[in-house]
Amino acid sequence: MAESGDTSVMWTGLLFALAAGLMWGLVFVAPLLLPDYPAVLLTAGRYLAFGLIALPLALMDRRELRRLSAADWWSACRLSAIGNFLYYLTLSAAIQRAGNPLPTMIIGTLPVVIAVCANQRNAARDGHYRWRQLAAPLLLIVAGIAYVNWVEQASLGEGELSRYLQGAGLALIALACWTWYPIRNADWLRTHVDRSPRAWATAQGLVTLPMALLAYLAMAAAQGLNLPAVPTGFDFPWGPRPWAFIGLMLAVGLFASWLGTLCWNEASQRLPTTLAGQLIVFETLSALVYGQWHRGGWPAPMTVIGALLLVAGVSWALRLKPEPPTATGAATAH
């Protein structure tokens, strides 16, 4: 019966991770839908919406939020500043400079990067996957990403090399941010198993509100000083299509930020960090599907093959059982 319960927890975590990936994929298409909006305004708009959405939600979770210490709020600030604000600022700027395929390719390596970073780091807490266990599913995931992005890169038009390289560099910074975020976020959740993942998602939303307001103030000051944060002649603060901007920011703020974070928190409490890291592949798949929808037409056969390889790698990884932490390792972890 215990094994059946463990399997149920594992599959529940999988479904939460899938839901998070479907919603997080929206962040890749937003810069394509609003290409004339600067990345800093897209980031500030998204997290202003996230913060405003979190305010009424905070009333529901006020009892749980009161349990958070000053150290917990500082953790929420660090997680939001790096895993939310800096990540999306660099990602949206990368997409606007290099197009959707290259940033998606780079961010698509997250399952491998997180698995490599977490497998040794969290062995005492989560158990340890032997590298030969992980090799085959990770190779499938890498192969799937390579297939998909080979097709995507082949469709890129001729562009300015320096701008393309800028996009690659910004996407690498985004990759570093989102390698750090899920590992650190899981640390907090796994050491506070009595806390509500929903309240923790709301707390991260609340602390993004002052960050977004500060970004708006900085952009207003930059525009007044004729600095290049906002394009010359840009209709600040809402841009040339205010209702499209406001509606998309609200949608991304609700689904990709709060609800997506909530689903990821639920998954992180149920799954080992190494495995949860691999499930970020769902975000890559969603981003590619949404990007293809925006472009129009059906995906290329190689894209479908790549997607199947990705799913096969994740399914294989779900069947793996980590070696349990040793008594010495568990004691050290505490």
User: Helix count?
Assistant: 16
Q: Could you give the count of β-strands?
A: 0
- Please give the radius of gyration in angstroms: 20 Å
Task: For the record, give the distance between the C-alpha atoms at the N and C termini, rounded to a whole number.
Answer: 28 Å
| Total domain modules | 1
Mean pLDDT: 81
Counting helices, strands and paired strands, the structural category is mainly alpha
**Helical fraction:** over 70%
Beta-strand fraction estimate:
under 5%
Given as residue ranges, the uncertain stretches (5+ residues, pLDDT < 50) are: 327-334
Q: What is the succession of H and E elements? A: HHHHHHHHHHHHHHHH
Largest sheet: none
Write down the overall geometry: globular
